[in-house]
Design goal:
Structural class: mainly alpha
Low-confidence stretches: 85-90
Oligomer: single chain
Amino acid sequence: MNAEPNRRLANLMAEAGASNKGLAKRVREVAQRRGAHVGTTHVVVQRWLNGGGIQPQTVLFLADALSEKLHRRIAPTDLGFHLAPTGAPPAVDGYPESLPAALNALDDLTQQRPEDTPAGDLLLPEADVNSGVLSWLISRPDGLTVDTSNCRRVGMRDVSAVRTAAEMFMRLDFLYGGGHGHKALRHYFRHEVLPLLGAGYSARVGNALFGAATEISQLLAWTAYDTGNHALADRYLLSTLRLTQVVDDRMMGARILANMSHQANYLGRPSRAVQLARAAVEGGKERSTPRAKALFAAHEARALSAARNHKGASLAMNEAERFFARAEAGEDPAWLSYMDEAELAGEFCHCFRDLGQGAEAVRFAERAVALTDPKYARTLGFCRMVLAQSQLLNGELEAAVTTAGLAVTGGDALQSARFQRYVSDFQRDVSVHAENPVVQHFNEQVRHALQRLNDD
């Protein structure tokens, strides 16, 4: 049976005015810029037009080539090929060099389900991350291409809808964690947000639109992180960092770097975490509000504490306090509203715990628990677990186990893979007291809580 001609590809080539030879040349150039080699010729392009197949990697280069030619985003799925989903690791590596490449990378990532891609510690190589961070730090903004000829026009009403969606999904994440809503968020970003970025808009609308889009994109990264899929989260974060370059949103870019530092710290890579946090501090210092600077300094303190750098951590915490004291003086974006006194106390209790300073860790953890709104179930769970760990540092076994029991039974935090690791780490720490009745009772609480989670 003969294959059906690929009319979608033919139509795009006709719209772009691209010949077989011209398109083949562009595909080879895109591949070379991304560190790959493909042997695409005009004969291969004709084979595609006749209905032939294409390699998964090559289709990304083809989409990028047509995106650049047409000055709008062309997704791999727009090209008319039948692409079978795979369970391979996310193919997106490195810092996208252009906006079309970034949008194609994000489109590819939104087709990856956290449960279908390798979970474990599969972060991008150091060289790719360092190159990406340097590219962002020295970058110039792309600027917006204001296309008045595009048939679809984006207005502030569309931007408002995206921001409302971001707030809704953020609330779900705070309430339930564990990647709750990730599937719906992927679908919304891919089918509603990405098409807007390739439409027509004024400069004012475009700036607001990219700000809203990066907020949802970083939330996709965070929810993947919370499920324990660090390979996927890491790639979302680096592609989102590239989005901030378009409109030169240095404060949001620094936030993405701080999130990458948080992830590296969680995975036990303190040196990587320190570098990323310092890049956030440096990259955001010129155009960030005092509240944002406090956040970036707190992440540096977290990373330095994990590295057992007492002096550096102390200096970074002092910086965070100094900036936070002026927090009310700045006009903060809505996404920064969570950075309040409770959040800062929560960051500091982690620092003192990692530095082995039990008394200070308990003091800040108790303050974080007291100040955290119960609606932020996962955050409250983390604070209680750090308080339990800090009490254990002070030799207060019964108090520690009681606090940990409240964390496990007091909310929905257990849905988070990160929170479950806090609990398992604590169980390991108290395992030396396995015969103690309070420890046995706590282990039973954990077992019943996990069973209820599975039942629900």
